[in-house]
Design goal:
single chain; mainly alpha
């Protein structure tokens, strides 16, 4: 193994096994997820309504359409991955931060 921890071999995975990086790239491939994660980075708690307004403005979709997409697809997916805490009863989202996600968002913003 080299000094940087890279062994020079690719890890073999069976079908169904995915790395955390694979999952993050999949989740961040959706523009509205990147928008909402950038928004919550500097806020301890936000409402789904706030997020829907921001996503709507950034993506050019109707606020009601953005809210539906957030509630039924984006927020549950991000919560399942452990990136956010989503409380559907109170319609609130918490984000504690993730260094890798922040780095990926920064790169995506520059592109």
């Amino acid at each position: 193994m080299s000094d940087d921890g890279y062994s020079g071999r690719l890890e073999k995975r069976t079908v169904g096994q995915r790395s955390r990086h694979d999952r993050l790239f999949e989740l961040l491939s959706e523009h509205r997820r990147r928008v909402l994660l950038r928004y919550v980075e500097d806020r301890p708690v936000v409402t789904v309504g706030e997020l829907a307004a921001i996503v709507s403005e950034e993506t050019g979709t109707a606020t009601s359409e953005a809210a539906i997409s957030l509630r039924h697809a984006d927020l549950p997916a991000l919560a399942d991955a452990g990136l956010i805490e989503y409380d559907s009863r109170s319609s609130t989202v918490r984000y504690d931060g993730d260094d890798l996600v922040s780095d990926l968002l920064e790169v995506a913003t520059r592109a």
